[in-house]
């Protein structure tokens, strides 16, 4: 029991000790400066006149209200600071009245709920600085908020407040040199006529705000625009609005493209006194003597003691940051006009061709065989590639000439993500399907007379299901942070900054190269198998094997340049620019998707037969369809008459199937004879 009582006594002793001096000073309200009266939770009053008072600091006070005429008579005060006064909740209209010498007014970190009335200060100073900051309860800058401030130049530091909206004519009647709206984290709306009635500003800072658009009126006088960390500002007004812009520090590199090759005025001025300098510069430049620009405007007596800026008349060049990088150059999505024509041609052919193939194969009256099933998968993959090209071509047509204003919305939006998913899914499923087609052809040729080892549809379905799952996984990874589709305007996963992204890109490329090697190896074997007279491959399988060998080898030859440059880029040694890579994108990357439906299906006799038979159902091409029916009928009769040739006998199941086919053909023959 002794120890707890001792600890309790020590605790009581510590509590009874006086607080340290610094803590005591922090807790104690600041002294009220003369000649002011600062009653706790009351109203502040600073009556004048007070000779020699030029600076009035009102900090850490417990006042709640600053009433009207609170500073009446302080005719000599130059600077008023009202800071860190959290209890202050209201500043009455007319609180700041008739302060002719006032140059600087700061109202920061208070509890006021609306913008204080500063329209009756009537300062006669040339330049006036108004600082209103860290007042989180002020939500609006109303109309005519600064109208009575008639100084020659005004600097407004309105940062860190709770502003959500700036209303029309908010800065009416002012001559603004600088307007700082930075760090107003909730500021979303600035009315189009916010600068209506104002001159300026020359400097505008909207960094770290949620502004989605700048006003369309009043931007002509801006010389310096600062908009860092303004991620909601994805679109700028027309660049012709910024006629005097000299320096821009923005959030997105693409916005700097708007100011490339933008003609700027030779002179840009902050003060209205210099409004005729551009004409004087031109005339002064032509004078043969050493008379300066200023002596052409002012009298000799007025120039005494001036420091001349002899570079004043030199042309100014606009500086913009951040500069566009190699991945996002200043150009449209399709950098060349001929690419715009080609991409529309290719995507239309790819979509219509593959849709036609899918429709005909899926509605055919013939049995869905393994080659037909694989062809359907290939056509769907190529159709997805056509959708990707359609998206890219459509956005390019809509943003032509102004892509810099749409780049952020497009590359960070769902449209680019969808386009990227389509192209990666389509390319991987296409490569996978081509590999399976090749393996199926090799297996069919190698085991041509061993019908019990023939690949069936029940085997092909799970194989292709695996391909769909693999392609979907590869296409989804950039959507969850493994590389991304927003790096470039064509929405390909070109982000290789992280190690995981590099592994992702290299894995895709290595798998594609492996697929190419497998296809080459299979077709070499197929070639030798066809040349071997000991193997009894059917004539139909031999023709298909030769044809598909040429087609698939051509497909991968088209992909070779893309793979080569992609591997070099993955190792951060790019051998080609994004601009030139778009040529590969249009001329090589999607050509297979355009050509495959024609080379694999539409130009084949089997597809033409199915196509005309389908049209005959709608009353079209009945004659051609009848020819194909008779041709099929003749083939059945021929098989029945010739039977099986060769030394190897067919299996019992095959013999039974063929017998049934012949019997069915005989029935058809009798029916046809009766109808004729």
Provide an overview of this structure.
With 676 residues, the chain is α/β, with parallel strands linked by helices. It contains 16 helices and 15 strands. The chain is elongated and about 125 Å long. Residues 353-600 form the G-protein coupled receptors family 1 profile domain. Receptor for lutropin-choriogonadotropic hormone. The activity of this receptor is mediated by G proteins which activate adenylate cyclase. GO terms for molecular function: G protein-coupled peptide receptor activity; luteinizing hormone receptor activity. Keywords: Cell membrane, Disulfide bond, G-protein coupled receptor, Leucine-rich repeat, Membrane, Receptor, Repeat, Signal, Sulfation, Transducer, Transmembrane, Transmembrane helix.
**Separate helix tally:** 16
Helix/strand-derived category reads alpha/beta
Please mark out the parts with pLDDT under 50 across 5 or more consecutive residues, or reply none.
21-27, 264-299, 305-310, 644-676
- Note the main sheet: 10 strands, parallel
- Proportion of residues in helical segments: 40-55%
Strand order of the largest sheet: 1-3-5-6-8-10-12-13-14-15
The gross shape turns out to be elongated
Task: Estimate the mean pLDDT confidence.
Answer: 78
Give the N-terminus to C-terminus distance in angstroms: 122 Å
Radius of gyration: 40 Å
Strand content: 5-15%
What is the number of strand segments?
15
């Amino acid at each position: 029991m002794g120890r707890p009582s001792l600890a309790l006594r020590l605790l009581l002793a510590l509590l009874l000790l006086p607080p340290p001096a610094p803590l005591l000073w922090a807790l104690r309200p600041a002294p009220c400066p003369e000649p002011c009266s600062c009653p706790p939770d009351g109203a502040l009053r600073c009556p004048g006149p007070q000779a020699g008072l030029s600076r009035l600091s009102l900090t850490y006070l417990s006042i709640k209200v600053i009433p009207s005429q609170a500073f009446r008579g302080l005719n000599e005060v130059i600077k008023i600071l009202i800071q860190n006064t959290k209890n202050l909740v209201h500043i009455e209209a007319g609180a700041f009245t008739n302060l002719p010498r006032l140059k600087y007014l700061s109202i920061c970190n208070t509890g006021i709920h609306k913008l204080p009335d500063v329209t009756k200060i009537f300062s006669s100073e040339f330049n006036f600085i108004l600082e209103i900051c860290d007042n989180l309860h002020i939500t609006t800058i109303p109309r005519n908020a600064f109208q009575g401030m008639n100084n020659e130049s005004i600097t407004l530091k309105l940062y860190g407040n709770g502003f959500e909206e700036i209303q029309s004519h908010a800065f009416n009647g002012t001559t603004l040199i600088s307007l700082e709206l930075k760090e107003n984290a909730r500021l979303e709306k600035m009315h189009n006529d916010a600068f209506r009635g104002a001159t300026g500003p020359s400097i505008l800072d909207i960094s770290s705000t949620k502004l989605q658009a700048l006003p369309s009126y009043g931007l002509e006088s801006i010389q310096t625009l600062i908009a860092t960390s303004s991620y909601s500002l994805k679109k700028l007004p027309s660049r012709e609005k910024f006629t005097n812009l000299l320096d821009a520090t923005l959030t997105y590199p693409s916005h700097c493209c708007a100011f490339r090759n933008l003609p700027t005025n030779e002179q840009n001025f902050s003060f209205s006194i210099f409004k005729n300098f551009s004409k004087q510069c031109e005339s002064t430049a032509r004078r043969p003597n050493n008379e300066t620009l200023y002596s052409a405007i002012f009298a000799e007596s007025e120039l005494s003691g001036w420091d001349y800026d002899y570079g004043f008349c030199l042309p100014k060049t606009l500086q913009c940051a951040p500069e566009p990088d190699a991945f996002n150059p200043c150009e449209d999505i399709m950098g060349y006009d001929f690419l715009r024509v080609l991409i529309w041609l290719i995507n239309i052919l790819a979509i219509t061709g593959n849709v036609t193939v899918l429709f005909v194969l899926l509605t055919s009256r013939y049995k869905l065989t393994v080659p037909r099933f694989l062809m359907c998968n290939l056509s769907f993959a190529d159709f997805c590639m056509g959708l990707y090209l359609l998206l890219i071509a459509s956005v390019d047509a809509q943003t032509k000439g102004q892509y810099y204003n749409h780049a952020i919305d497009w590359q960070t939006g769902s449209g680019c993500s969808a386009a990227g998913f389509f192209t990666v899914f389509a390319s991987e499923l296409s490569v996978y399907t081509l590999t399976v087609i090749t393996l199926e052809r090799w297996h069919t040729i190698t085991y041509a007379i061993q019908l019990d080892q023939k690949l069936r549809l029940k085997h092909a379905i799970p194989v292709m299901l695996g391909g769909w799952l693999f392609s979907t996984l590869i296409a989804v990874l950039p959507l969850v942070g493994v590389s991304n589709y927003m790096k470039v305007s064509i929405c390909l996963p070109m982000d290789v900054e992280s190690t995981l992204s590099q592994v992702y890109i290299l894995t895709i490329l290595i798998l594609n190269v492996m697929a190419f090697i497998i296809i080459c190896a299979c077709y070499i074997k197929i070639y030798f198998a066809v040349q071997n007279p000991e193997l009894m491959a059917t004539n139909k399988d031999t023709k298909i094997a030769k044809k598909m060998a040429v087609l698939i080898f051509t497909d991968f030859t088209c992909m070779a340049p893309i793979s080569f440059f992609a591997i070099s880029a993955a190792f951060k040694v790019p051998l080609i620019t994004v601009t030139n890579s778009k040529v590969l994108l249009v001329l090589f990357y999607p050509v297979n998707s355009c050509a495959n439906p024609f080379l694999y299906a539409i130009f084949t006799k089997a597809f033409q037969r199915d196509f005309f038979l389908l049209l005959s159902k709608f009353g079209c091409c009945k004659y051609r369809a009848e020819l194909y029916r008779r041709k099929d009928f003749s083939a059945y009769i021929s098989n029945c008459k010739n039977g099986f040739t060769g030394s190897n006998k067919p299996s019992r199941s095959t013999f039974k199937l063929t017998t049934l086919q012949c019997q069915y053909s005989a029935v058809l023959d009798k029916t046809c004879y009766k109808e004729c």
